[in-house]
Amino acid sequence: MPDSPAKVALLASGRGSNLAALLAARERGELPVEFVLVASDKANAGALRLAEAANIPTLALDPRSYPDRRAFDLDLFARLAASGAEWLVLAGFMRILDGEALSPWIGRMINIHPSLLPKYRGLHTHRRALEANDPEHGASVHFVTAELDGGPVIAQARLPIEAGDDELQLAQRLLPLEHRLLPAVLGLLVSQRLQWHEHGPRFDGQPLLRPLTLGDDGSLSVK
Ligand code: GAR
């Protein structure tokens, strides 16, 4: 009997292209997970429509119907727990999370962020990399902690910034790399090759001293 696939819930506020990449990786047999819920703070999020088309349960919660952020987050995380999820993936979930509400998920929740963290936490990452004349840009997947975009970085995809790049071009060139990075990290996580540890992530039992790097072949390695 094969092991049962890891149960994953995903949170997204927008179009859901990273969800689509995860679903495609699963279809190809590269990601042994079961998506038990896709949740959003936006009822019109494309990610919800993608999930429905894939027969994945969905949940849309409107933050405006809660008295404050903590109340919303506590309800959201209670419902995520009730879904049976063992792992949470934030893929374009554009909300700051309450530290107390998220604390039970530390070590079991990852986020993809479009910058080479610790550079450019928060918004407008492509623009900020261009304005700083950075030679390269990228995306990071990190464990989520109470600090916004500040949890331990697991892996990164890097790409050179080219003369004449604008914000949109950079975002468009980065996105296909995100679509490889996120399934690769989730795969390591659910296989337990990558583990949260209070003193920093461990990869194959060893402390991860630097983020893993996405190679041209889509694999992650220590560089
Ligand atoms: C992605 O580029 C992701 O890195 C970014 O939102 C986009 C979601 O796209 N996340 C953040 O900015 C989080 N701070 P998608 O909905 O097509 O997956």
Tell me what the structure shows.
The protein is an alpha/beta fold and 223 residues long. Helices cover 30% and strands 24% of the residues. The chain is built from six helices and twelve strands. The strands form two sheets. A nine-stranded mixed beta sheet has the order 3-2-1-4-5-6-7-11-12, covered by helices on one side. A three-stranded antiparallel beta sheet has the order 8-9-10. Strand 2 (33-40), helix 2 (46-53) and strand 3 form a beta-alpha-beta unit. Helix 1 (17-27) crosses helix 6 (167-190). It is globular and about 45 Å long. The N and C termini lie far apart (36 Å). 39% of the residues are buried. The model has no long low-confidence stretch (mean pLDDT 97). The chain binds glycinamide ribonucleotide (GAR). Glycinamide ribonucleotide binds next to helix 1 and strand 5.
Lateral arrangement of strands in the main beta sheet: 3-2-1-4-5-6-7-11-12
Number of strands: 12
Structural class: alpha/beta
Distance between the termini: 36 Å
What's the helical proportion of residues? 25-40%
SSE order, as H and E?
EHEHEHEHEHEEHEEEEE
Mean pLDDT over the full residue set: 97
Radius of gyration from the CA trace?
17 Å
What fraction strand?
15-25%
Which ranges are low-confidence, i.e. pLDDT below 50, for 5 or more consecutive residues?
none
- Main beta sheet strand tally, sense and closure: 9 strands, mixed
In this entry the ligands are:
glycinamide ribonucleotide
- Molecular shape: globular
How many alpha or pi helices?
A: 6
Outline:
With 223 residues, the chain is α/β, with parallel strands linked by helices.
